[in-house]
């Protein structure tokens, strides 16, 4: 982990040139969608065609296509991420529309995800409020666990678990939440009806619906977005499965979605869980330091920067989420001489990041978990 330059004393956000880059461009946004979704559709169709047979050519070419599709899905998710920040397009309506379309590709309702992600932005570097994508605990809490609990904790945060965990996160979790919310609604409705029958309640039906809330969703908009997303996604599953064969579809789909989600979660994880990352508690926490010192500059080859829509410039993204992905690099280069405390993270250092799964709230740093 290295810093780009010496950090000027008492650097403030006002010292950085940020505002000129908080400008969206619809033409660039449309072009990014086109150069992502058209190749994604073409590669997916070609993969389906090739895997209809087990010829030598299909066996050799299918893995290449799977890797390419997974990378294109990473770019697609990054574009949806920008829409969630209302930065890809100029208008909110275009961002919402594009986000909904992209959310169908990833089977991930974009609005609930964007709300959770916004919470992360508001508390980045404040580990008493946000414990990362894998819900880290403190070193003290870990020390008080039994050996079996410690082993399970480490196991669930092993990088290999990202593959089945990624599929659960993208595909299963939203649907499970929706089913549980449906059962909860039925239970509340039955309770309401029983109360009306036995005279314990006098609330009208309209009031019942207006006051209804679910513990599985923070708002009605999250619920409605999950319902709409799930409806279209399930219809797509049935249509594609009926067209190419359900077994054929689900083998390819589960493999690709698992790998895609694992990659996206891994990239997000290492951009905040790295050696020396800013890991404050509530007292003394600084949003600015969280952005500059709690978000890494992931040094990727140019081709991988394209596939991840420059999310590697994560410190710039956290300075202002309104900077669209296509201006992150320019903003970094304009301010590079001031970004001395930003940690540069190289691919050779990524593996070590996955060992940092505990927050030492006394030393205010991330540490490995040992037996």
Description:
- The chain is mainly α.
- The chain folds into 2 domains: 2-161 and 224-368, no CATH class; 163-223.
- The protein is 60% helix and 5% strand.
- It has helices at residues 26-50, 56-84, 92-106, 110-122, 139-143, 147-156, 162-197, 205-211, 220-244, 246-270, 287-293, 302-307, 314-319, 325-335, 350-353; strands spanning 2-3, 137-138, 297-299, 343-346, 356-360, 365-368.
- Strands 1-4-3 form a 3-stranded mixed beta sheet, with no helix packed on it.
- β5 (356-360) and β6 form a beta hairpin.
- α3 (92-106) crosses α9 and α9 (220-244) crosses α10.
- The protein starts with a strand and ends with a strand.
- Mean pLDDT is 89; it is low at 2-9.
Salient structural properties:
371 residues, mainly alpha, three-stranded mixed sheet, 15 helices, 6 strands, disordered N terminus
Give a brief outline of the structure.
The chain is mainly alpha-helical and 371 residues long. The protein is built from 15 helices and six strands.
Q: Which percent band covers the strand fraction?
A: 5-15%
* Mean pLDDT over the full residue set: 89
- SSE ordering: EHHHHEHHHHHHHEHHHEHEE
Oligomer: single chain
Proportion of helical residues: 55-70%
- Computed over alpha carbons, the radius of gyration is 23 Å
Number of strands: 6
Number of structural units classed as domains: 2
- Identify the overall geometry: globular
Q: Assign the structural class, choosing from mainly alpha, mainly beta, alpha/beta, alpha+beta, or little secondary structure.
A: mainly alpha
> What are the low-pLDDT stretches, counting only 5+ consecutive residues below 50?
2-9
Query: What's the helix count?
Result: 15
The side-by-side strand order for the widest beta sheet comes to 1-4-3
């Amino acid at each position: 982990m290295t810093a780009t330059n010496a950090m000027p004393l008492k650097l403030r956000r006002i010292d950085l040139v940020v505002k000129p880059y908080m400008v969206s461009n619809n033409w660039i946004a449309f072009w990014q969608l086109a150069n992502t979704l058209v190749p994604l559709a073409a590669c997916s169709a070609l993969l389906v065609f090739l895997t209809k047979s087990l010829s030598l050519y299909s066996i050799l070419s299918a893995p290449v296509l799977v890797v390419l599709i997974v990378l294109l899905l990473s770019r697609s998710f990054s574009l949806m991420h920008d829409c969630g920040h209302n930065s890809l397009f100029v208008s909110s309506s275009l961002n919402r529309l594009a986000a909904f379309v992209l959310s169908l590709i990833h089977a991930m309702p974009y609005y609930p995800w964007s709300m959770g992600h916004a919470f992360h932005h508001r508390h980045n570097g404040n580990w008493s409020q946000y414990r990362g994508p894998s819900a880290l605990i403190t070193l003290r809490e870990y020390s008080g666990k039994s050996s079996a609990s410690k082993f399970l904790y480490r196991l669930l945060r092993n990088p290999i678990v990202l593959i089945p965990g990624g599929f659960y996160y993208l595909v299963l979790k939203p649907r499970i939440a929706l089913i549980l919310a449906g059962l909860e609604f039925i239970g509340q409705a039955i309770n309401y009806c029983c109360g009306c029958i036995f005279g314990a309640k006098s609330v009208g039906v309209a009031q019942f619906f207006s006051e209804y809330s679910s513990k599985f969703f923070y708002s009605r908009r999250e619920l409605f977005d999950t319902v709409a997303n799930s409806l279209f996604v399930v219809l797509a599953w049935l249509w594609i499965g009926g067209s190419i064969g359900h077994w054929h579809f689900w083998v390819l789909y589960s493999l690709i979605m698992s790998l895609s989600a694992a990659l996206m979660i891994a990239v997000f994880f290492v951009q905040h869980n790295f050696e020396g990352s800013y890991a404050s508690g509530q007292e003394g926490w600084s949003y600015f330091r969280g952005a500059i010192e709690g978000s890494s500059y992931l040094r990727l080859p140019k081709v991988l920067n394209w596939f991840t829509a420059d999310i590697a410039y994560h410190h710039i993204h956290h300075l202002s989420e309104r900077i669209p992905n296509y201006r992150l690099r320019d903003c970094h280069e304009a301010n590079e001489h001031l970004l001395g405390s930003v940690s540069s993270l190289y691919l050779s250092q990524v593996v070590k990041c996955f060992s940092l799964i505990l927050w030492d709230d006394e030393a205010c740093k991330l540490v490995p978990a040992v037996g």
